[in-house]
Amino acid sequence: MYLNQIAVFVMVNCILALSCYLPLTVGRLFICYGAVMSIGGVVAAEAAYFVPMPLALLCGGVAGLLYAGLVGLICWRLEEFLFAVVTLAIGELTKVLVMNSAAMGGPLGFKNVSAILVSPSYPLVFLSSFVVVLIYFEKSLMRKAFHFIKYSEVTAASLGIPVEKYRLLAISAGGFLAGVAGGLYIHTVGIIEPRMFGFESSIQILMFSLLGGYGYFLGPLVGAIILTITPETLRFSTSFRLVFYGLVLLLSTRLWPDGWFSKRFSISKMRELRGS
Amino acid sequence: MFGEQILNGLGIGCAYALIAAGYNVIFGVLKIVNLAYGEVFMAGAFSALVFARFVSPNPILMCLASIVGASITGLLVHFVAVKPLGNVSNVNSPRHLSVVVSTIGCSLVLQNLALEAFGGYTQPFPRFTDGFITVGRWHIEDVLIVNLLVTVLVGFTVSFLIRRTNVGLRLRAVSDNQVLAQSVGINVNADAVFSVVLSSALAGVAAILISQTSGGISPFMGSMYGFKGLVIVIVGGLGNTVGGILTALVTGLLEALTTGYISSSYRDAVAFGVLVSFIVARYSLTSRRR
Q1: Any residues with CB less than 8 A from the CB of B161 and at least 6 apart, and which?
Q2: Is B116 in contact with A240 (Cβ distance < 8 A)?
Q3: Which of A11, A269, B51, B240 has its CA 20 to 30 A from that of B132?
């Protein structure tokens, strides 16, 4: 039972890591997937009363897509660093608004769940289908276009790549993944607290990609698996878990600045290309 | 009522202004955004509290204790999380992400150590004065006046330090062009350390001011005020000290007016909403199509 739960968490976090990976491929730090995921979760939980579970999860995904797309539109053409801070602030804003709205559960959290999924089959199916899509995506021409956008906007635009549209596409696609993950999360845990909307969980999601390495989609997966299992194995000292977690972050930025697993398109390679 | 709210807002805004100035000092010299800065601020507040409990509750000594505690923490963050990553000269470089990660790691460690040491609940913080000054129909808390005076004093001291002294000249040189500064014999590393101490001292003073107005401190205050300070600095313009201070004061006013006239639960929503819409209007809508 316990192992089952951990397996579900690992898979949900893997989907979240992939969601955050997509904006990173176009050079954008989207730090509000916590809010996107939670909105997807709430919508999925509401939809589960009317439609079968897989469809409800997809509804959550669509809600996440719309919300992420909205945030992406708000941040249209912002520079990299400003983009990160504005998305962070929008996430916090969403959290405060949610805490004040009764429909989203208020300060106690949203608990209106129709069923609790025990088996890891749903996460497994969704995760594997996303991975299959991403394998094809990594080989596609679009991935190369994304890499050009990240490496040099001006070059990309001069090659006729629609920079801002592709960015929005990447962000919204990530929003879809996050929404599905939110649906899976709420149907496993049974509650979404307002804290989940805020920047703590968004940064947590970002960590998977930053530590795993975001040159290739396996990096975020590796990051998610390791970072989900590490706190669980540290359960012998519940109090100092997050301290250990912080130390892991600190050490790994020094030891592996490119992330634990980054096969293609790594930071050092980008620096080589930039000549700096 | 309205005048009192304005004064309340200015009292909070002053503390935000000091935090914003601290961010700007670090950004100016090191060109990094330190996400553990909120934790430096929290460390200042807690060292003042510990000092008051075990040594003496003298306000000036507590303020010094806060400054010393914050400076030690700031130096720790600098040498553990920022310095080893090497030179990070551009906020938009991919390398900057590793500073973000390592300072977040640092802030997690500091926040949870504080949680272990002091517990998660809000600790009462001794107030230096409890009096009122009555001017006509207004009842003004002494604390607010002290806040305003301290901020003005600190502001002028820092501005004197930056504009008129040798150290300030060096700091301005480094923040203007690091390579050129190095080539005329300025020890950039020493100045970086000095700027860290200066910004941490500002955080220490701000911590005292905020704990005076709110009356309590908790290990979570760092991330909250640190993050708000970051958004304020971005709105004011990174590296633009006057802009940062003005934005901080406006934010404080907005928060006080929201608390007074709408509801305290919407305080952060209004502040963030206005700041975000400002950034979007300033940078997103007005930027030319590339």
Answers
A1: B167, B168, B198
A2: yes
A3: B51
